[in-house]
Design goal:
This protein has helices at about 15-20, 25-35, 50-60, 70-80, 120-130, 150-160, 170-175, 195-200, 210-230; strands at about 40-45, 65, 85-90, 105-110, 130-140, 180-190, 235-245. It has about 250 residues and is an alpha/beta fold. A seven-stranded mixed beta sheet has the order 3-2-1-4-5-7-6, sandwiched between helices. It starts with 12 loop residues before the first helix and ends with a strand.
C-alpha cells in the first residue's frame, strides 16, 4: 500500500464511489444557521474524492470547486458530477489548492482532514477564503452499538489496525479553541451483501486484494451479513459530525 496519502485510494475508487455513505441534509441546515451558507456561497471542497459531499452543496445551489490530488478519485468525481455546471474539478491539495486568493466563502473537507499538514493547510485556507469566511470539517462516524455495528467495528479493529482518528486537540489547534461550532446529525447506510464487503474495502487501511487478510475479511464480512441481514439488507448507523470555525 502506498504511504503517499494522495495515492492510497487509487486501487479503491470503485468501492469508494459505490459504497461510502453520503451526507445528510442536516449538514446544510447547520451551515445555513451557523455560518450564513446560501445558494450563492462559493465553496472549495478539499479532498473532494468521488464527490459525495460536493453533490450535497451543488444540489443546494452553490458553486463548488472540488480539490482532489488523486487522479483516479478526481476522475470518478468528474464523472459523478458531470451534470452539475457549477462544479469545477481542480487538481490540487489542501496545502496548495491552486485556487485564487479570496475566491471562496466556505472551505469544506469530509473524511480528509487527517491527511492534511495542519499549519500549511490553515495558511492556504486563509489565502483562498474571503474575509469572514468559514471552514467546515465533516466526518461520518460509525455508531458503536450492539449487533451489526459492533460486529463491523470488530472486523475493522482486527483487520485494519492502521486506522487513525482525529483527536479533539488537533481540531482545537487547527481552529484555535474555543471558537468551533459543532453539530451531530444522525445518518445511516443500507447495504446488500456486496455493499457490506465494498464498504469495508473502500477504506485505505483495509487489506489489499490478493492478501491472506483480504480473503479472511471477505469471509467474515459474509458471515456478519448473514447474521444480521433482513430481507437481504443490513443497516449501518452513523453520526455525521460537523466542526465549523474561522481560521
Amino acid at each position: 500500500m502506498s504511504m503517499d496519502p494522495t495515492q492510497r485510494f487509487s486501487s479503491r475508487v470503485e468501492d469508494y464511489a459505490r459504497y461510502r455513505p453520503s451526507y445528510p441534509a442536516g449538514v446544510i441546515s447547520f451551515l445555513e444557521r451557523e455560518c450564513g451558507l446560501t445558494a450563492q456561497t462559493r465553496v472549495a471542497d478539499i479532498g473532494s474524492g468521488t464527490g459525495l459531499l460536493a453533490e450535497l452543496f451543488l444540489r443546494f445551489g452553490c458553486e463548488l470547486s472540488g480539490v482532489e490530488p488523486n487522479t483516479e478519485m478526481r476522475t470518478a468525481g468528474e464523472q459523478m458530477l458531470a451534470a452539475w455546471p457549477r462544479f469545477h474539478s481542480v487538481n490540487g491539495r489542501a496545502e496548495a489548492t491552486t485556487l485564487a486568493e479570496g475566491s471562496v466563502e466556505l472551505v469544506t473537507a469530509a473524511q480528509a482532514f487527517h491527511w492534511f499538514e495542519p499549519d500549511a493547510a490553515r495558511a492556504e485556507f486563509r489565502r483562498i477564503l474571503k474575509p469572514g469566511g468559514w471552514v467546515a470539517l465533516i466526518w461520518n462516524e460509525r455508531v458503536q452499538a450492539p449487533g451489526l455495528d459492533a460486529g463491523y467495528e470488530d472486523l475493522v479493529s482486527r483487520y485494519a489496525p492502521e486506522r487513525t482518528r482525529v483527536a479533539m486537540s488537533e481540531l482545537e489547534y487547527f481552529f484555535g479553541a474555543p471558537v468551533m461550532r459543532r453539530t451531530v446529525v444522525p445518518n445511516q447506510q443500507m447495504l446488500d451483501r456486496d455493499g457490506l464487503r465494498g464498504r469495508l474495502f473502500s477504506s485505505s487501511y483495509a487489506p489489499a486484494a490478493g492478501t491472506e487478510n483480504y480473503e479472511a475479511l471477505t469471509r467474515e464480512a459474509g458471515r456478519l451479513f448473514d447474521e444480521f441481514q433482513v430481507n437481504g439488507i443490513v443497516t449501518l448507523q452513523y453520526t455525521t459530525e460537523v466542526y465549523a470555525g474561522r481560521v
